[in-house]
Amino acid sequence: MSRAHDINRSFFPFGNPFRMKSPRGTKITSQLLLVSQAFEASLEERLKKLIPESKDEILSLSWMTFAMRALSESYDDIKTLVTELELPVNDWDEKWIDVYFDISVKLLDICNVFSSELSRMSQGHLLLQCALHNLGSSSSEQYGRACSSLDGWKQHIGSGNPRIEKCRNILDGLLGSLDLPKVKKSAKGKVLMQAMYGVKVLTVFVCSVFAAVFSGSTKNMLDLDVADIYSWASSFKSLQDVVNEEIRGRFSSGRFTVMNELESVDSSVKELYPIIQGVVDPVKMESHTKIVEELGKSTEKLSQGLDLLAKEVDSFFQVVLAGRDALLSSLRSGATVIHSNMGVNRNAQIVS
């Protein structure tokens, strides 16, 4: 898969399978068109809501939680779409099903990676709590303990997670899912594939942002070039531009972390070091007390944010898992598929 220095390559070199004039026998009816437009309108609205009003909102745990929730809601929309299309499993191309299972495995894998990193960051909460407890005293001995706890927290957060290294390969696989076999002889299949393209674009974007934040590196960042034929394309481009620009700016500034809540805790820790190490007279309790209070607030906000995001990642994991179970059940019974995470074939270029 390409990196930042590679030449842009098209994931769709053979033309547009969703052109307005479909081949004979696959014409999209007005009813199907309305279904497709309703889906795209919902996706566009979701993308607009993800565009932050302020750059300060980007890379906050609350924004990341909202982004992960948007993924779950989008896959729920696909579930509704498949029900409306009444597209039975026996109408699915064998390749669709194979690709579906392959993609869903990748999504489950990346959810597990994200969950492990969120758990690792949450484990640092105890060290911060120990530091806050010892900072409640003016004893030099307890100050020393507080300093040790804060040092331990910084080392823990900065130590990295080996599992994050898997993200690049998983993202490469998800990118490949944007370039699948053409849909033939099925108007309903075309509507489903077109809808799934939008969901897959959102999925790759959100997962790449998470991977970049958790890895502390731009190597997992991706820039998708979406064709303008979609009503939601402009909103997606605006979202991608503002988020990716901010991420790159933060990485280039050499910050300890690019995540807002972690940055807030680190800022308080830096202010406290001169006091707890005796560089500044600890008798100046007013300033000391205020900084400790700020650290306490930042610590609690970080802990709560990590918990909420972890729950959303788990919810998305369950959505994907339920989709696999539903397809397996449908394959056994020959019933209508009630959920899908399948990828799609579309015009897309990638620079990473």
UniProtKB/TrEMBL annotation:
InterPro entries linked to this entry: ROH1-like
Membrane topology: Single-pass membrane protein
Regions crossing the membrane: 191-214
Localization in the cell: Membrane
Domain of life: Eukaryota
Keywords: Membrane, Transmembrane, Transmembrane helix
Single GO cellular component term: membrane
Record PANTHER family: BPS1-LIKE PROTEIN
Family: Belongs to the ROH1 family.
Name of the protein described by the UniProt record: Protein BPS1
Species in which this protein is naturally found: Phaseolus vulgaris
